């Protein structure tokens, strides 16, 4: 048996964990999937409800944008701390508290009678999501320690991560059109009740062994650093050459650099550097940033194209987004069977190119274009490519993680997606303004053409972002396919 490289779990640890894998692990997967779906849905489900909520609560445009920003801000800032709390306090306990707190915050937002109460609720949602998301992924990692079952479990998780945003658009459209915007938040309550009721008897508690001392300086630095970066990118929508945009981005980079310095010297680091310095895992994290940026940016502007240019209702707009999700679901099963045969490197190299091709097709949309001819082919290719990425990405990002670090490593995966989404939203908003402005300058101000020009620029930029993940995967992800075989007894690097 080959000795595993530094940063990868000892095979004996994997064997022991495998022996302890619960018999009801597929029910555990269902519970974790519910939690992941809830967190992903809230990234998009509120977007469709915002116009109605703004009108009813008499919110300004600035306050409306904060409904989205506050969730991303608290979620992204507290993720690593939430992951370490899950490791030390207990993953089951953190999952149940996170799920319960998320439900209460959702109920508060759902019955909000003022903009201030809605904003408070969204901030609390993000905070509890930062505890819930890493706990859920850590539970999945511990429950499925290796082999083909782990590949299948992460295929389900990756499908939700990739397609949940589109499902959120559909569900938001249904609830807004037939009920009210309040239900876009209240819908989380029954989901949480089911997850908690099932989780109490089915989930097993697990926590890190040994010292459980918290790294307070590291927690403060990384929370403030991530919050500053996310906020800085959110302000970039109003302009890049602004004091607040550049100031918060610079402050965030400085704080994160200090965080790395502190972690390199800490006896009990919040984020052990071995987690992010492993070559394959670092490649997965970088790919996750690129994919998160491209996916959220593309979905936002595709939704705008559906509603503003094609004139679709919120419900029909959500339905029009489903082919991408269907492609992810169908292909995820195929990819999970391919992973043990070809390994993650080829899949994660080819996947971004397929998805980027889909976005290139979407960049050719027109004002009077046909959905079937101009949008559907690109959506399907985007979904296929994302399935090739998400299924192996989750596996590689948590491959060989020591059991005591599973919570914080899971948080790091989610944090890369959040940061990627924030970067993508800000950058693509700026590029959209340039594209739409160019169309106006060319004499198209009288119609929808400037908007379509802006959307096309966004899809083209998203394609470039996705394509960058291909060489990253090819050169950095060198994990042998044997790691994903039925036995999964050792971690070989190619």
What would you note in describing this structure?
The chain contains 19 helices and no strands. With 494 residues, it is mostly helical. It has two domains: 11-202 and 270-484, MFS general substrate transporter like domains (Growth Hormone, Chain: A, Up-down Bundle); 215-269. Helix 7 (147-178) crosses helix 17. The radius of gyration is 22 Å and the shape is globular. It starts with 10 loop residues before the first helix and ends in an 18-residue tail after the last helix. 57% of the residues are buried.
CATH superfamily of the largest domain: MFS general substrate transporter like domains
Proportion of β residues?
A: under 5%
- Provide the number of structural domains: 2
Question: Termini distance?
Answer: 15 Å
The coarse silhouette is: globular
Number of helices: 19
What is the chains' assembly state?
single chain
What share of residues is helical?
Answer: over 70%
Biggest sheet statistics:
none
Give start-end ranges of low-pLDDT stretches: 1-19, 487-494
CATH architecture tag of the largest domain: Up-down Bundle
* Cα Rg: 22 Å
What's the CATH topology label of the largest domain? Growth Hormone, Chain: A
> According to CATH, what is the class of the largest domain?
Mainly Alpha
Q: Please, what is the average pLDDT? A: 84
Structural class: mainly alpha
What order do the helices and strands follow?
HHHHHHHHHHHHHHHHHHH
Number-wise, the strands total 0
